[in-house]
Specification:
Order of helices and strands: HEHHHHHHEEEHEEH
Helix content: 40-55%
Oligomer: single chain
Number of strands: 6
Length: 275
Amino acid sequence: MAQTHEKLEEQTVKLNQSKVKMYVRCGEQYRRRYVENESIPPGIALIRGSAVHRGSQHNFDQKVDSHLDLPNAEVEEVAIETMRAKIENEGLSLNEDEMAKGKDAVVNEGQRAVRALTGLYCDNVAPRYQPILVEKDLELDLGNGTTLTGILDTVADDGTIVDLKTMSKAPSVGQYDADIQITNYWLLYMAEFNEEPKHFAIECLIDTKIPKNHTAIQTRQKGDVEAFVNLTQSVAHAIEAGVAIPAYGQDAAWWCSKKWCGYWATCPFVPPHRR
C-alpha cells in the first residue's frame, strides 16, 4: 500500500499560475527552469518588486494583531535590505542598456524606486486594509494528478484579496480581465474559506516621475474558474508526457528574444547565428 501511495505522489504535478504562464509561453523555458533547475539571476524590476513586497509583508504581518501600520522608515529599511540581500545571494541580470549604464547606476536607481514605492505603499495602500491573513501557502487537488498551489499575499477583513504590484507605467484598460493569476488566487480563496471573496484588489505602485498608486478591482465567475482548471490540467498532462514546445518561430512571441529570455544564448531551438 505504501508503494502505491508513493507512486501516486510521484504522478502528481504541482502548478501555479506562474508555471502555467511560463509553460504556455515557452515549454522549453519551463523545462530549463523547473525540470533542469537552471535558474538565472533576476533583473532589477523583479528584485525591486520583491523588495517592496517584502516590506509590505513585514508591515501586514504584525498588523494582523496590532491593527496599526509600522512607521514608513521601518518598512523602507526592510525593503532596501531585502533588495541588497537578493542581489548578493542571487545576482543581478543586466540587459544591454543596463550594462551600458553600469551595475552601480542600475542598483542605485533600483534603490531609489524601492524607497519611493515603499513610501507610496505606506501612505496610500496600507491604511486602507486590515489584514487577517498574510502570505498563506495553499494547495488544492484538482483531480487527474494535478495540484494547484499558490500564496495568497493578503486577505483583508472584508474578504478582499489584496495583491501588490510594482511597475514603470500604469496598467492598460482590461489588462487583468483574463489574468490567470487572479483566477488562481480566487479559486484557492474559495477552497480555503468556502465562499467567494468580495473582490480582488490589485494595488499598482507605479514608478513615474511622481510615483502614483492605481487600484484595479477584479472579480471572477464560475466559467473563468472552470476554464482555468481545464488549462492547468492540460498543462499538467503535457508536462507528464514530456512535451516542451519552444516559443521560437511562433508569431508575435515577443518574449522569445535576447532581451526577455535568459536562456536565449543557449537555447537549442534558436539558430546559432541569431543568438
